[in-house]
Write a structure and sequence with these properties.
The complex is a heterodimer of chains A (290) and B (326). Chain A is mostly helical and 290 residues long. Chain A has 11 helices and 4 strands, in the order ααααβββααααβααα. In chain A, the strands form 2 sheets. In chain A, strands 1-4 form a two-stranded antiparallel sheet. In chain A, strands 2-3 form a two-stranded antiparallel sheet. In chain A, helix 2 crosses helix 8, helix 2 packs across helix 9 and helix 5 crosses helix 6. The longest helix of chain A has 32 residues. Chain A starts with a helix and ends in an 11-residue tail after the last helix. In chain B, the strands form 2 sheets. Chain B has a two-stranded antiparallel sheet with strand order 1-4. Chain B has a two-stranded antiparallel sheet with strand order 2-3. Chain B has one domain: ABC transporter involved in vitamin B12 uptake, BtuC (Orthogonal Bundle). Chain B is mainly alpha-helical. Chain B has 14 helices and 4 strands. The longest helix of chain B is centred in the last third of the chain and has 27 residues. Chain B is globular, with a radius of gyration of 20 Å. In chain B, a hairpin with a 2-residue loop joins strand 2 and strand 3. The chains are: A mainly alpha (290), B mainly alpha (326). Chains A and B meet through helix 4, helix 9 and helix 11 of A and helix 5, helix 11 and helix 13 of B.
């Protein structure tokens, strides 16, 4: 009993960490740019596919793939923000959401064209393959690595936003765009940088998922983006702390749900989202009025 | 447009559609039915989006409620659509009353997220309650038996016969939604879109109006769902997925969000374009994404809005007004 609970917890934590990596970028972009980016799941997916391709070109060194895959996604993030998204900030919500949705359609289809519609197998990571015994049952070492990576990224983000000069500028632009512009911050440039950074976070999540998921499909972006939305909403749109806790909650909820009440696992997630929205629309840690 | 030209335009449209039903080939008839069903969905949805200014990701769930309501009635009670269609539409309307009651408390992004959550709840129920809904296989083999009203039997078995039933509901939708748009009720909805604080100060219960718009659009979504189930003789849970809610949004956007005829023009373009693109390439989504980008970046008024603006500019009598919602 204890063994199964611990293992379900660990599985939930590792799923939660992937959701966190996507949701962190999503919520950072929403907090600063005010745009809810549907294409964020596609950045996750592209990160995974680019990492996979990078592995092919340089003899299966996963760590190089982890660096080059997300960098390629940064270029795409730059194009999306600089040439498209920038022109819709002043428009009504449906236009912003639909613009990012258009990119979902384009990216998902392009992945089908370039990498094929089927699933492709993925490599194992040297040094992190195999498993350890936890309470008498094997648990993949790679998943433990993922569980460690999540808080590490969270800590890094926190230090970056709270302790560095750049972080302070980002927070300033998030809280008052016009004031920040008035004191000489180049807000449009900052928006581009934040968008690229958010895309990079999602792409790192995708690249880390390559050895984890075992199979890559062009639907993986759309699958994770809704969970990331749920997490971002539960934690409070724009709040990174909330997104981290939200990701843990959703990861655990879905793994316990799948294990014990498989009929209602998805249902539970969405009921939690609706209850939070109704009871506390600003989320656990969101600030301000809606 | 004044009242006469509207009546004339409607009469011409009706004549053309009847002619299509009588003389066109099977494929054209099938396409025309899909266009009309999508129109019903989009026209209803646009009451919420174009009129009231609320973006919902949950209306696919009401579409699915209509579809599953009809399919379950047809399988378990009677295949007569005389009972099935009202059952499906009623289920959709009741669900939109319950869900709408909670959703209209918020606006903007929070409204969108709430409708997403509720819509996906229904989707997950349909997906997982395999014994009732057939799970991911959906329900299939729904027959189009005669539409019987006591002694009168109207056969709808053949597509050319069913076409006229769809046409009947399509015209009904067109006329009723046109009435809603022109009614004081419709004006209040536009008022809410433009400035809900002022509308509230005018003494109008804004939330109740929003709820009414929500239920009306849910009702038409359900109607579209029942008609589509009869057309395709089956339904899959994909119909309840949030991405299906994007379809009426896209259609309204192509046609022109804040116009009455926009969703109609948009539906025609959407279905026809899709057929054409799919004939040449499998990458429909890619092309559609590109078209969507072009519309959002350059032609936010949609077909109807942009054309209207073009005419206006040509006359050059008044300064051009942006039709789009900026």
């Amino acid at each position: 009993m204890l063994q199964s609970i611990v293992h379900v917890c660990l599985a939930g934590l590792s799923t939660g960490m992937f959701i966190w990596l996507v949701a962190s970028g999503l919520t950072l972009i929403f907090g600063v740019l005010g745009v809810l980016n549907f294409a964020h799941g596609s950045f996750y997916m592209l990160g995974a596919y680019f990492c996979y391709t990078a592995l092919h070109f340089q003899g299966n060194n996963f760590w190089l793939g982890l660096i080059f895959g997300p960098l390629a996604v940064c270029v795409i993030g730059f194009v999306v923000e600089r040439f498209f998204l920038r022109y819709v900030y002043h428009l009504a919500l449906p236009y912003q959401l639909l613009l990012t949705f258009a990119f979902v359609l384009i990216f998902d289809n392009l992945v089908n064209i370039i990498w094929g519609a089927g699933s492709i197998g993925s490599p194992s990571v040297p040094g992190l393959s195999g498993s350890v015994l936890i309470l008498g049952r094997g648990f993949p070492i790679y998943n433990l690595f993922i569980i460690a990576m999540g808080p590490l990224v969270a800590l890094g983000l926190w230090a970056f936003l709270e302790k560095t000069w750049w972080g302070r500028i980002i927070r300033a632009a998030a809280s008052d765009r016009e004031m920040a512009a008035a004191i000489g911050i180049k807000v449009p440039l900052l928006y581009t940088v934040v968008f690229i950074f958010g895309a990079w976070l999602a792409a790192v999540g995708g690249a880390l998922a390559v050895p984890y998921v075992g199979l890559l499909t062009s639907g993986m972006g759309q699958a994770i983006i809704i969970e990331a939305f749920v997490v971002a909403v539960i934690g409070g749109l724009g709040s990174l702390k909330g997104a981290f806790l939200g990701a843990l909650v959703i990861g655990l909820l879905s793994s316990f749900g799948t294990r014990y009440i498989p009929t209602f696992d998805m249902f539970l997630t969405f009921i939690l989202m609706a209850v939070v929205l109704l009871w506390r629309p600003q989320g656990f840690f969101g600030e301000g009025e809606q | 447009m004044n009242r006469h030209s509207t009546t004339i335009a409607t009469a011409i449209l009706l004549c053309v559609l009847i002619a299509v039903g009588l003389f066109a080939g099977r494929f054209i008839i099938y396409l025309a039915m899909r266009v009309m069903i999508l129109c019903i969905f989009a026209l209803g949805y646009n009451i919420l989006l174009g009129r009231t200014g609320l973006l919902s990701f949950g209306h696919a769930a009401f579409y699915a409620c209509g579809a599953y309501g009809l399919a379950l009635t047809s399988i378990h009670i009677t295949p007569n659509p005389m009972l099935g269609i009202p059952a499906g539409v009623l289920l959709a309307a009741v669900m939109s009353l319950i869900i709408g009651f909670f959703c209209v408390r918020h606006t903007e992004i929070y409204f969108a997220m709430l409708t997403l959550a509720f819509g996906m709840m229904i989707y997950s129920l349909i997906w997982n309650l395999r014994s009732i809904t057939g799970g991911d296989d959906g329900l299939y083999g729904i027959m189009r038996t005669s539409f019987s009203l006591g002694i009168v039997n109207i056969p709808i078995m053949k597509e050319s016969q069913y076409y006229f039933m769809v046409l009947f509901f399509f015209m009904g939708t067109l006329v009723s939604i046109h009435h809603i748009h022109r009614s004081p009720f419709g004006l209040v909805l536009s008022g809410i879109r433009e400035n809900h604080v002022r509308t509230e100060f005018a003494g109008l219960p804004v939330k109740r109006y929003r709820l009414a718009a929500f239920i009306i659009s849910g009702f038409y979504a359900g109607l579209a769902g029942t008609l589509s189930t009869l057309l395709e003789s089956g339904i899959t849970p994909q119909a309840a997925h949030w991405s299906h809610s994007a379809e009426p949004v896209l259609v309204s956007l192509i046609g022109g969000m804040q116009t009455f005829t926009g969703p109609v023009a948009g539906s025609v373009v959407y279905i026809v374009l899709r057929e054409i693109i799919e004939r040449f390439t499998q990458n429909w989504m890619l092309w559609f994404g590109v078209i969507l980008l072009v519309i959002i970046m350059g032609f936010r008024g949609g077909i109807v809005g942009s054309t209207a603006q073009l005419f206006k500019e040509r006359r050059a009598l008044e300064p051009s007004r942006r039709v789009s919602h900026e």
